[in-house]
Amino acid sequence: MDALRAILAKRKEGMKFSGIPSFCTANELVIEACLKQAKRFDDYVLIEATANQVNQFGGYTGMQPADYRDFVYKIADNIGFPREKIILGGDHLGPLTWVDEPEKDAMEKAITLVKLFVSAGYKKIHLDTSMRVGDDPRDKDLTDETIARRGAILYEACEEAYQELLKKNPDEQRPAFIIGSEVPIPGGAQEVEDSLAVTKPAAVEKTLKTYEEQFEKRGIKDAFQNIIGIVVQPGVEFGDADFFRYDRAEAKELTGAMEKYDNIVLEGHSTDYQPAEALKEMVEDGIAILKVGPALTFALREGLFALSMMEKILVPEEKQAKFIETMEETMMKNPKDWQKHYHGTEEEKALKRKYSFSDRCRYYFAQPEMQDSIAKLFKNLSEVEIPLSMLHQYMPYQYIKVRDGILSMDPRELAEDCVVHTVEDYNYATKLNYTIGDIFIK
After folding, report:
1. Domains of the chain (ranges plus CATH)?
2. For residue range 311-368, what is the model confidence (pLDDT) as tens digits?
3. Taken in order 333, 338, 340, 342, is the CA torsion positive or negative?
4. What pTM was computed for the model?
5. How far apart are CA 322 and CA 327, in angstroms?
6. What angle do CA 181, 187, 190 make, to 5 degrees?
7. Among residues 136, 138, 140, which one has the least CA distance to residue 149?
8. What 3-state class would DSSP assign to 285?
């Protein structure tokens, strides 16, 4: 039994702690940090790419699905993490990046997209057809029938790609699928409202029933044996400076109604910035797959900023990498990935470019000037001695680990450990008897 389906089996036996984080990122340092942490605890790790990041045209990373797979595997090989313990996922796979095109064209591209993900060996496939395309009416929501019909078409395409894989390897593991019609937008909300509507149980029931009908129409009889999760809105979201904390009382109607489905779990998106206890409550309540993305690169950016502040003190100005300034210059030169998301005065937008929870700066980390600046920052600080007392000022969590001899002063390790600090919250939420303090034990 594969690791994802094992979650269902454990939960059927009453193990309500059983769940898994889904790390949605294309950042090399973040992926390396996630893999290193999983290696410490001999864990499986689920790493996902969205259709925005990775698609047949390259996405904003320039990678197709096979390229991203090889990218992750190379990182794993470099640190000695076993490939067989990596679960690759495709997130928001559907017409997301072609919403301005008519259904025929958008769905043709979406079919190609999902086939490429399955053919490249991705084992968790989130089929997302919840968005309008170019010829959908603008004045009303999509019907469940339209969403499910498009989803069934994509499922069928995935099955075709899987059958081709079986011809090469009869033991090829079948992908597990996630569906859902109340899907939060990738990367967090542009604006956080005063309230957030939790998905109604009736909406979940209708989604499942409608998908079942659409599968039946297409002669697909066993689809629900391979659908392990449904995306819902359990009441969590984040914007530039705020987030909605999970309230299990508000979500009780939804999570309680889902208890009768022992062959499916809920998948929570936008769980970024939730406290560890809230994440643990989500898993206990049946939201067993916890998606996180921007919070990971936000943590990395924090670490790089902290290193930059120490560089300003320890390294002569003419030699400094000036990462903070480089990031701002890079974002200003090419504003298309943040300007539709950050609003307000020029001063407010400048703050958001650096500190927004939506973390649009993650779109720029792969730019050559950013990569060069990070490499120079690491080099500069590896050639000087960072006083322990200064580390305490700028990186207090990492200071504790350095002090106790379980983390080196290597600047790359310090930056990655900021990501580990976030990953730890998800370990706590999805593992039995796991305490965050365990990380401090040699």
Report:
1. 3-293 (3.20.20.70), 298-417 (1.10.400.20)
2. 999 999 999 999 999 999 999 999 999 999 999 999 999 999 999 999 999 999 999 9
3. negative
4. 0.94
5. 9
6. 90
7. 136
8. coil
